[in-house]
């Protein structure tokens, strides 16, 4: 694991308070990276890992990502903060039961999932809904599993907290303190607005990358040619195609309504490019690309 010059900044964040025991459910890239910095920066005094994959359990334990491995029920009983970082369909399935387990306590639950409307609706009427903080840190890589965990993954990235008015004040404070420890920039949205926006800026990017990779693999059978001709543009566009299918298939299905809308719009643009190329319409192509260049004003 890499060194972290932010240790001194956050050391002792729980000083004067009771010890903070954190349970991380799903010890992959996100969960493992959380464990590194929450311990290193003094937010968590102990991290309990929960994972259905015994290989992930062993790696996380023996590499020091977590202090112990336990069952979900036992870990929830021990922990002050429970973080769900499994695929979004698993997060959605687990959350109601976890909220039932922590009734009458000061325990807090948050999740790292890339979709929010479905999980929010699942617990909308739960009597312990206030103990849940819906959040989505906009950080990650194309790699997965505990071996992919790295320190500083979240530094200076954005995190979206959804429907904050539905969370208890102290639960929100705990989540906010955690994200401050991770040096994240906090924004607030409704769960529905979040899902609309991530469909455009995140989910369509992954679908585009998967599709490009499939097209290249379908048409270019010579791997050596791919390696010879693949420049920076291809590598950066297709990088996301290395992402885990176990993670992304549930995301696409959970946010299917908005993703289909985005895909329809995206296909319209692709077909317009196709038509202009077919018609040898250079001016039309330039107009499309000049319009697309306006993204520079947003992404400097």
Describe this structure in words.
There is one protein chain. The chain has 300 residues and is an alpha/beta fold. It has two domains: 184 residues, Rossmann fold; 104 residues, 6-phosphogluconate dehydrogenase C-terminal fold (Orthogonal Bundle). It contains 13 helices and eight strands. It has an eight-stranded mixed β-sheet, sandwiched between helices. Helix 8 packs across helix 12. It is globular, with a radius of gyration of 21 Å.
Rounded radius of gyration (Å): 21 Å
Report how far apart the termini are.
31 Å
The SSE order reads HEHEHEHEHEHEEHEHHHHHH
Please give the number of β-strands: 8
Tell me what portion of residues adopts beta-strand conformation: 5-15%
Structural class: alpha/beta
What layout of secondary structure does this protein have?
Blueprint: H1 7-10, E1 21-25, H2 29-40, E2 46-50, H3 54-62, E3 68-69, H4 72-78, E4 81-84, H5 88-101, E5 108-111, H6 117-122, E6 132-137, E7 158-162, H7 169-181, E8 185-189, H8 191-219, H9 223-229, H10 232-238, H11 245-254, H12 256-278, H13 282-292
Parallel strand pairs: 1-2, 1-4, 2-3, 4-5, 5-6, 7-8
Antiparallel strand pairs: 6-7
Helix pairs in contact: 8-12
